[in-house]
C-alpha cells in the first residue's frame, strides 16, 4: 500500500501536490494528517469524492510499502502519522518540498527539494514529463496550490517554472471560477472577530523608514486560517513586516502554545532563520512556528528586535550612483562628445569648466538633434542644460528624496556634489532598479547584459562565508577591510572566488539537508538565490587548509564616492603588506593593480591576492589589449566576461556580506548556465572563447544559446584572420591566448574541452584551417597514451606537446610560425620546424617493410629527443610508428654486457677506441650476436684483439 502524507492543517499547495502524486503513483492514496485551511475545507466538502482520499484511521501500517511526504520535511508536522516513517518493512520514503532552507529529519530514500514557489510545481513538471492528463478538479486544486503559495505569481519566491506549471494546468482544464471561489473564501465569523481584535491591539514601530507591527491574541484552542488574517493585517496596516501571534491551550496537561506567523516585505532581509531557530519554517518572507510554554509578549518582542538588527541601512545616493563621472569641457565639439558617448555607452555627459566645477549636462538626445542639423563641429556649450536649471544632490541624499526630485522636476539624471566636487550621477534607471528590484539598465554603463535580456538584480546578504574560509585568510580579509574603511573606501571580493564560494555553500547545504547513511537521497540545487542574514565580522572559520578556490583571491577597492585616486588598490596593498611582511608585493601601474604573493608559507601556503582599483576598460580595436580607466564597482563588474564571474561580496561596513549581482549571475550559477555579458565580448577578446569552454567543461555548465551564437559569429566574422594578417600580431592571440591554451591542455578535462572548442570552430582562432578531424583526434589520443607511458612523472610539458601536435597538422611552413607567435618554448618551435624533414628521413631510412636490424633502428632514432619521437610516431606510417615504439619500449633500454670499466680491467687502454668498441658491442647485442659476458669477450678477441706483449 502506498500513501501520500500532507502536513497538519493542510493548505492548497500540499493538497495540490498530493493530488498530483496520486496520478503519478497509480494506486497511492492521499491521507490527511490533521485539519485544513478554511478554503481547503470548503473545497473538500464538495470535491472529496473526486480525490483518492482516505481517512488516517483507514491505514493499516503493516501493509504500507511506500510513503510520500509533500510540502514539509519535518516529522512533527505529520502528527501521529510520523510514527509510520519508522516502520522497518518500508521499501521507500519520498519527500517533495519547496522549502529549500528547511531542516529535514525525515529519513528519505528520495528527496526532491527545489526553491520554486510551490511544491505543486515540482509535481506538475513530473506529470508533464510522464505525459499524464488531468481531470478538471485535479487541475483546479493543483492550480490553487500554485496560486496560493505564490500570491497568484506575485510573491518573491515565484519562479518562471511556477508560471509554466500554472499555464499547463490551465490547458488541462483548471476551473477559473473555482479558483476565484476558493483562493479567497473570505473570513469566517470567528476569524473576523480575531481580525478586529488584532487591529485594535496592533503595536508598531518605524525603523529606518520601515514599519514593523506585531500583535498577540488569546484564543480557546487552535484556530485554522490564521495566515489569512496575517495577510489582511499586512494590507490594512501597510506594514513592511508583521509578527502575528495566537496563544491557546489544547488541554490543561499540555500547557500553553503560541503560534506565530511572520510576514515581511522588506528587501534584502529574511525572517526565516528567526523562525528556524525555534523549530519553525517557511520562506524568507513568509514563515510560521509553534512554541510551547513561552511568554508570548517577550517572544514577539524578541522576533521584532532580531529583525531590526538585520534591517538594511537606507539606500542613499552614494549607494546607487555611477562613479566616477565622465566629464567633458564646454568647448569640445558635438562630434567628439558623441564619440565619447559611444565609447562608454553613456546616455549623457557632465560638462565641467577648467576648475572641474559642474556647468551643465548634455544628453544623447541633445547630441542627436545637433548632429541632425549638421552642427557636429559646434561646441557642446550651446546645446547643454545650464547649471542654473540643474538640480543636484549630495552623496547622503536618500532614494525617496531623489525620486521626489525626479518626479517633481521631470529630470532624468541628478549630479551628486560633495564639497563642491562632482563625485557621481544618479539616473532614472538607478532609481527604477532600486524600486522594482530589476536590472532595468546599468545607469551610465549601458542598458542590458550581452544577450539583451533584463536580469533580476540580486543584492542580498550571503550566509557566513567565513565558515568556508580558513581562519588565517578570513583574518587577512578583515585586515584589508579595516585598512579600506579607514580610508573611507569600499572593498569587495570579486570574480571566481565568489562564484566558487557560492557553489561550495550550495554543496554544503545539499549535504547538510541529506541525512547521512540514507540511500538514494538527492537534492537539486536551487535556481533562485536565497536571502539570508548578514555574516558577522570577527567570526573565524574552523578549517585550516585553504581550499583550492581560495589560492587566488581578487579584491577590488572602490573609493570614488570619496574621490580616491586611481592608485587606491596599490595604496591599500602597500598598507596591508606592513601587517604581512612575508608577502611579496608586485605593482602593475598600468592596470592600477597590486599583488601580494606568498610561496609555501606555513600559514597561507602558495597564495596570490590581487588588489585592484575598480576600473572600466575599452578595446580600441578587436583582439587588442584593453585601455583601462579607474571607475566604480558596478562598472568594474560590467567589464567582466561572464555573468557568473560578475559577482561581488562587500567586505566593508555598513553592509558587509552584501552580494552584488547586476547581471543574473546567481541565477545562471544555480541553473548551470554560462552566459556572456556583452554581445561583442568575443570579438574584442578571443581568449574569452577559450575561457568560456574551460569554465563550461570544468564546472559542468552549458553554454547559453545566445552566448554560443556570439562565439560562432565572432569566429565566422573573420576578425581574427584580419588581426593575424596585420604586421604586429594581436596581443590577445599571444600571451593571453597561450595562457588559456595552457589552462585547458594541462587540465584533467582537456579532452572534452578540446572537443567543444572544435565543435564551436574555435581552433580557427589559432589558424583558419585548423580543425579536429577524426584522424587528428585519433592521433591526439594515441599521443597522450604514449606520453603517459614514457613520461609518467610529467617531466615534460604535456600541455605544450599536445598543442604542438595540433599545430603539426598545419602546413609545414605554418605550424612553427603559429607556435612562435604564441611564444612557445624555443625547443617546441624547433621541433615543429624539424618534424617534416625528420618524418621523411625516417620513412626513407626505416622503410615501410619493418625488416630493419635493431642496431640500425637505434642508430637512426637515438639522436632524436623523446618529445620529437612521440610526435614522429603518431605522424608517421604504421611500420615506422611500430619501430619508434619498439625503440622507446625496448631497444633504448638495452645495454652491452661490457662497460668501459670492464674494458679497462681486460687490459684495454682508455682512449678513442673505447667508443668504437662499445658501439660495436651494443650493435652486436641489439642484433642478437652476443648476449652475455663470455660471448662479449670472445667478440672482442675476434674483432679487437689486444696487442701481443714482447717476451
Question: What does this protein structure show overall?
Answer:
With about 950 residues, this protein is an alpha/beta fold. It contains 36 helices and 30 strands. The strands form 7 sheets. It has an 8-stranded mixed β-sheet with strand order 19-28-27-20-21-24-23-22. Strands 3-2-1-4-5-6 form a 6-stranded parallel β-sheet, with helices on one face. A 6-stranded mixed β-sheet has the order 7-8-9-10-12-11, sandwiched between helices. α1 packs parallel to α3, α25 crosses α28 and α27 packs antiparallel against α28.
Question: What key phrases describe this protein's structure?
Answer:
951 residues; alpha/beta; eight-stranded mixed β-sheet; 36 helices; 41% helix; globular
Secondary-structure map:
Layout: E1 2-5, H1 12-24, E2 29-31, H2 38-47, E3 53-54, E4 66-70, E5 92-97, E6 110-113, H3 119-130, H4 136-150, H5 160-171, H6 176-183, H7 189-201, E7 203-207, E8 210-218, H8 226-237, E9 241-249, E10 256-264, H9 272-276, E11 281-282, E12 286-292, H10 296-309, H11 317-320, E13 327-328, H12 334-344, E14 348-352, E15 358-363, H13 364-372, E16 385-386, H14 399-409, E17 413-418, E18 421-427, H15 428-436, E19 458-461, H16 471-486, E20 490-494, H17 496-512, E21 552-558, H18 568-577, E22 584-588, E23 593-601, E24 605-613, E25 615-618, E26 627-630, H19 633-638, E27 647-650, E28 658-661, H20 665-670, E29 673-674, H21 681-684, H22 687-699, E30 702-703, H23 705-716, H24 719-725, H25 735-745, H26 750-760, H27 774-790, H28 798-807, H29 812-821, H30 826-846, H31 854-861, H32 866-875, H33 878-889, H34 900-905, H35 913-926, H36 933-943
Amino acid at each position: 500500500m502506498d500513501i501520500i502524507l500532507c502536513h497538519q492543517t493542510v493548505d492548497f499547495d500540499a493538497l495540490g501536490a498530493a493530488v498530483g502524486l496520486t496520478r503519478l503513483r497509480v494506486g497511492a492514496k492521499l491521507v490527511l494528517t490533521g485539519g485544513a485551511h478554511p478554503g481547503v475545507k470548503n473545497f473538500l466538502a464538495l470535491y472529496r469524492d473526486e480525490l483518492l482520499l482516505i481517512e488516517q484511521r483507514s491505514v493499516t501500517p503493516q501493509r504500507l510499502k511506500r510513503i510520500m511526504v509533500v510540502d514539509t520535511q519535518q516529522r512533527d508536522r505529520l502528527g501521529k502519522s510520523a510514527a509510520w516513517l519508522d516502520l522497518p518493512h518500508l521499501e521507500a520514503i519520498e519527500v517533495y518540498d519547496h522549502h529549500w532552507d528547511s531542516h529535514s529529519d525525515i529519513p528519505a530514500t528520495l528527496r526532491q527539494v527545489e526553491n520554486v514557489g510551490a511544491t505543486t510545481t515540482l509535481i506538475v513538471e513530473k506529470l508533464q514529463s510522464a505525459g499524464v492528463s488531468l481531470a478538471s478538479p485535479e487541475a483546479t486544486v493543483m492550480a490553487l496550490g500554485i496560486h496560493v503559495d505564490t500570491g497568484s505569481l506575485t510573491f518573491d519566491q515565484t519562479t518562471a517554472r511556477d508560471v509554466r506549471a500554472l499555464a499547463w494546468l490551465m490547458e488541462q482544464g483548471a476551473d477559473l471560477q473555482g479558483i476565484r471561489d476558493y483562493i479567497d473564501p473570505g473570513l469566517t465569523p470567528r476569524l473576523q472577530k480575531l481580525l478586529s481584535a488584532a487591529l485594535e491591539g496592533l503595536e508598531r514601530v518605524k525603523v529606518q523608514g520601515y514599519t514593523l507591527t506585531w500583535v498577540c491574541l488569546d484564543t480557546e484552542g487552535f484556530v485554522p486560517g490564521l495566515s489569512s488574517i496575517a495577510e489582511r493585517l499586512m494590507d490594512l496596516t501597510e506594514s513592511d513586516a508583521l509578527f502575528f501571534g495566537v496563544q491557546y491551550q489544547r488541554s490543561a496537561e499540555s500547557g500553553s502554545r503560541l503560534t506565530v506567523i511572520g510576514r515581511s516585505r522588506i528587501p534584502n532581509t529574511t525572517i526565516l532563520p528567526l523562525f528556524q531557530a525555534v523549530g519553525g519554517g517557511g520562506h524568507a518572507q513568509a514563515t510560521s512556528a509553534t512554541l510551547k510554554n513561552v511568554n508570548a509578549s517577550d517572544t514577539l518582542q524578541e522576533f521584532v528586535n532580531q529583525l531590526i538588527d538585520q534591517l538594511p541601512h537606507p539606500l542613499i545616493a552614494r549607494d546607487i550612483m555611477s562613479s566616477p563621472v565622465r566629464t567633458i569641457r564646454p568647448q569640445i565639439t558635438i562630434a567628439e562628445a558623441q564619440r565619447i558617448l559611444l565609447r562608454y555607452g553613456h546616455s549623457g555627459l557632465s560638462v565641467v569648466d577648467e576648475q572641474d566645477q559642474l556647468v551643465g549636462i548634455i544628453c544623447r538626445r541633445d547630441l542627436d538633434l545637433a548632429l541632425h542639423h549638421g552642427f557636429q563641429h559646434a561646441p557642446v556649450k550651446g546645446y547643454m542644460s545650464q547649471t542654473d536649471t540643474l538640480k543636484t544632490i549630495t552623496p547622503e541624499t536618500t532614494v525617496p528624496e531623489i525620486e521626489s526630485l525626479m518626479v517633481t522636476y521631470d529630470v532624468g539624471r541628478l549630479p551628486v556634489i560633495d564639497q563642491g566636487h562632482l563625485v557621481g550621477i544618479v539616473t532614472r534607471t538607478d532609481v527604477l532598479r532600486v524600486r522594482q528590484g530589476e536590472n532595468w539598465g546599468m545607469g551610465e554603463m549601458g542598458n542590458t547584459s550581452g544577450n539583451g535580456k533584463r536580469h533580476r538584480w540580486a543584492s542580498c546578504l550571503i550566509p557566513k562565508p567565513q565558515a568556508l574560509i580558513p581562519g588565517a585568510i578570513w583574518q587577512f580579509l578583515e585586515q584589508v577591510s579595516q585598512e579600506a574603511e579607514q580610508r573611507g573606501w569600499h572593498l569587495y571580493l570579486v570574480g571566481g572566488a565568489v562564484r566558487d564560494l557560492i557553489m561550495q555553500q550550495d554543496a554544503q547545504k545539499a549535504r547538510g539537508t541529506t541525512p547521512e547513511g540514507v540511500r538514494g537521497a538527492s537534492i537539486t540545487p536551487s535556481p533562485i538565490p536565497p536571502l539570508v542574514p548578514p555574516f558577522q565580522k570577527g567570526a573565524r572559520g574552523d578549517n585550516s587548509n585553504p581550499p583550492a578556490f581560495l589560492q587566488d583571491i581578487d579584491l577590488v577597492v572602490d573609493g570614488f564616492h570619496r574621490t580616491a585616486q586611481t592608485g587606491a588598490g596599490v595604496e591599500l596593498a602597500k598598507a596591508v603588506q606592513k601587517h604581512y611582511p612575508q608577502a611579496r608585493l608586485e605593482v602593475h601601474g598600468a592596470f592600477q593593480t597590486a599583488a601580494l604573493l606568498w610561496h609555501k608559507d606555513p600559514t597561507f601556503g602558495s597564495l596570490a591576492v590581487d588588489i585592484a582599483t575598480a576600473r572600466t576598460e575599452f578595446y580600441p580595436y578587436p583582439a587588442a589589449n584593453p585601455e583601462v580607466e579607474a571607475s566604480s564597482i558596478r562598472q568594474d563588474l560590467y567589464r567582466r566576461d561572464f555573468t557568473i564571474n560578475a559577482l561581488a561580496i562587500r567586505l566593508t561596513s555598513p553592509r558587509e556580506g552584501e552580494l552584488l549581482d547586476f547581471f543574473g549571475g546567481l541565477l545562471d550559477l544555480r541553473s548551470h548556465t554560462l552566459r556572456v555579458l556583452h554581445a561583442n565580448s568575443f570579438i574584442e577578446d578571443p581568449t574569452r572563447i577559450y575561457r568560456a569552454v574551460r569554465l563550461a567543461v570544468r564546472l559542468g555548465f552549458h553554454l547559453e544559446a545566445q552566448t554560443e551564437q556570439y562565439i560562432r559569429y565572432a569566429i565566422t566574422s573573420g576578425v581574427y584572420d584580419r588581426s593575424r594578417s596585420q604586421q604586429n600580431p594581436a596581443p590577445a592571440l599571444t600571451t593571453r591566448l597561450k595562457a588559456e591554451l595552457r589552462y585547458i591542455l594541462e587540465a584533467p578535462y582537456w579532452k572534452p574541452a578540446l572537443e567543444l572548442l572544435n565543435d564551436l570552430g574555435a581552433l580557427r582562432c589559432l589558424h583558419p584551417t585548423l580543425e579536429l578531424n577524426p584522424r587528428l583526434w585519433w592521433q591526439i589520443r594515441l599521443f597522450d597514451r604514449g606520453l603517459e607511458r614514457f613520461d609518467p612523472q610529467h617531466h615534460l610539458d604535456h600541455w605544450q606537446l599536445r598543442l604542438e601536435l595540433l599545430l603539426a597538422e598545419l602546413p609545414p611552413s605554418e605550424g612553427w610560425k603559429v607556435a612562435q607567435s604564441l611564444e612557445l618554448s624555443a625547443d617546441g618551435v624547433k621541433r615543429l620546424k624539424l618534424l617534416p624533414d625528420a618524418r621523411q628521413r625516417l620513412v626513407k631510412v626505416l622503410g615501410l617493410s619493418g625488416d630493419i636490424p635493431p642496431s640500425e633502428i637505434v642508430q637512426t632514432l637515438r639522436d632524436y629527443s623523446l618529445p620529437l619521437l612521440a610526435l614522429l610516431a603518431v605522424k608517421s606510417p604504421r611500420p615506422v610508428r611500430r619501430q619508434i615504439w619498439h625503440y622507446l619500449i625496448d631497444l633504448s633500454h638495452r645495454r652491452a654486457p661490457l662497460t668501459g670499466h670492464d674494458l679497462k680491467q681486460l687490459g684495454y687502454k682508455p682512449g678513442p677506441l673505447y667508443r668504437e668498441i662499445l658501439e660495436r658491442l651494443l650493435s652486436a647485442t641489439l642484433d642478437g650476436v652476443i648476449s652475455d659476458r663470455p660471448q662479449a669477450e670472445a667478440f672482442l678477441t675476434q674483432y679487437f684483439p689486444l696487442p701481443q706483449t714482447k717476451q
